[in-house]
Amino acid sequence: MELLIAANPNTASRLRYLIRLPLDGLVFATSDTWPRTKALYCHPMDADAWPADAEPLERIGLRACNRRGAAIDIVAERSREGRSQLVFTTARGRDVVFWQSPRTVKQSRPGVSTPTARASGIENLSVIVDSHERYAYDFAGKPVVVTRRALPCGDYGLVVGDKLVAAVERKALADLTSSLLGGRLKYQLAELASLPRAAVVVEDRFSEVFALTHVRPAVVADSLAETQVMFPSVPIVFCQTRKLAQEYTYRYLAAARQWAADADISAGAFGVTAETGVAPPSPQPSTAEVRAWALDVGLPVSDRGRLKPAILAAWHEAHR
Question: Over the stretch 251-265, which tens digit does the pLDDT of each residue have?
Fold first, then answer.
């Protein structure tokens, strides 16, 4: 008795794998080969969707595969990652199937309840959600007024006057890993570091970094540490679940709003005087000046065109 996993012949689908259960020939399309870090959505397929010439990527021997009510219990013949379950349920009024394991169930239900008290005592917190953010936090049950519009950086922002003074970038573990290894995260952090306050929230636990299978966990951990040392003003916070990451985002932006309300702090942070509220003159360098400075200090910079955000952030850091 085996659980068979093969590549989905439909290369345009985001569900890259097909799984076939030894139970009535059930076939599903899904996005991974085992629910390691999150519950996997499974799309039911016809039995003949399994390719006749399929070369299984994995053959997982099973001790048991039994239907129990609205779930199918799967027990693999191995000591680690041995148990999982396909659950038939409904979401947004339609039937869906999720493949989960004890780890993903525990992760989605951490056994804590979030507080109901207003963050920093703010009755109505205005949060800007980036218009490109998919499946954004709704801050349900929180005294938050959400507005969607494009943000220069971050996914959730706090605007005081007409200035973006705080932002939070949201990351799933897979997105964090790919942006770390691809170098994209450094540019995002350089932009966030230009704000008075910014943070990155990760919807997972740090321990899950060492459970990654498609990359070397040590490489990810080293890259994460090096990036945090490079941008110490932008903390990267692992929040275990989406719900807790939303809670942290809400309370971080509320704390930033309270901080910005302090006249002395805001005068220094936003470049205005507490007495007049008028910004003092603050000449900005030309592109040529920044390029010359970068060459002097040994930073790689192109001979023409726009400067990279990392170069501008380095200049501002050096001339703060």
Answer: 999 999 998 887 445
In the chain, what are the domains? 2-105 (no CATH), 119-270 (3.40.50.10130), 287-312 (no CATH)
CA dist 50 and 28 (Å) reads 9
Distance CA 169, CA 191 (A): 11
> Quick check: 1 and 65 in contact, CB under 8 A?
yes
User: Between the CA of residue 89 and those of 30, 45, 73, what are the distances in Å?
Assistant: 16, 16, 15
**Encoded tokens for 202:** 């990760």
> How confident is the model over 138-192, as pLDDT tens digits?
898 899 999 999 999 999 999 988 899 999 999 988 889 989 988 899 999 999 9
SS3 181: helix
Query: Tokens 């709003």 identify what position?
Result: 257
User: For the whole prediction, is pTM greater than 0.70?
Assistant: no
What average pLDDT does range 13-25 have in this prediction? Answer: 89
3-state secondary structure of 271: coil
Is 117 exposed, middle or buried (CB count within 10 Å of its CB: 0-12, 13-18, 19+)?
A: exposed
**Other CB atoms closer than 10 Å to residue 112's CB: what's the count?**
11
